[in-house]
Amino acid sequence: MTVERAIVLLAEKSPSLVVVGDLAADGEPHQALAAIAQLRSQRFMGPIIVISNWLTQAYRARLFTAGVTDAFHKDDLCSDRISKALRRVRTRK
């Protein structure tokens, strides 16, 4: 499935949460920024969490400016951090 088709399906189904994997092999992770922009242009207003293998402070700031709810580096994932992020999502409703 293409990213574009996934965006359309997400906009149609309006899930309560979207998790975007931004795991670029070439060190250029900006796929998440494009996906977030497409989701928001399709009027998806729900929370978005990004998991990236390239999460600098500058990139993290760009993600939050684009409208993500939370962002994690793939190496920093643990059940406690995920649980806290999901609780924050639930309290935003």
Automatic annotation (TrEMBL):
SUPFAM superfamilies: CheY-like. This is Response regulatory domain-containing protein. Gene3D superfamilies: 3.40.50.2300. InterPro entries: CheY-like_superfamily.
